[in-house]
Design goal:
With 215 residues, the protein is an alpha/beta fold. It contains nine helices and five strands; from the N terminus they run βαβααααβαβααβα. The chain binds cytidine-5'-monophosphate. It is an enzyme of class 2 (transferase).
Length: 215
Amino acid sequence: AKAVVVAIDGPAASGKGTLSQRIAEAFGFAHLDTGVLYRAVGVSVLRAGGDPADNAAAARAAYELHPEHPILQEVALRTDAAAQAASKVAAVPEVRAALLDFQRRFAAHPPGGAPGAVLDGRDIGTVVCPDAQAKLFITASVEVRAERRLKELQRRGIPAISSDVLEDMKARDARDSQRAVAPLRPAVDAFVLDTSALDADQVFSMAVAHIGSKT
Ligand code: C5P
């Protein structure tokens, strides 16, 4: 049978990562956090001493990435420096093209023979998997997202300044939604969920109900 695909998009710290993991677990689907791929490309370029905004260097790093690449498991990918580098390489068309194959293969043939796949990112419902059975666009106000990110950093013992986190969030939002290729926006057939006033359990049950109605 053809694998079921659930596409979950949204801006940084919208809660889409946590939601995607819970959905994958509940349905027995494989999960791909596609942000990790862009982060890996960004970090590879930085490590090679390059500039993430340099198209050629970024494209080279993207073509070298494959599912077994050890960089995909590194904690270094979770840092803010990695996120900023990711959003720079993400604006390079060759990088997006190189990562498209990786993501589509995962969706078509979920690892472990899972009956479906959950992919989360910025352009899953619009570009990577436009035929996904269920599409969710998870969002929240930039202030709420910055607050959530700040709490997460504090929980991990990473010192951070509230105003810096908010500014970084705004800068990344602007880069992600204003770029020419695959900008962040909900697919026309996506279920848009603003989580500003919802907790993780409420978001989860609304998402499950939506997916249930589509699959
Ligand atoms: O989701 P995460 O914060 O890990 O993504 C890091 C960056 O990677 C985003 O800011 C975005 O620029 C880029 N990205 C993307 N398309 C995706 C996933 C991530 O452009 N599908």
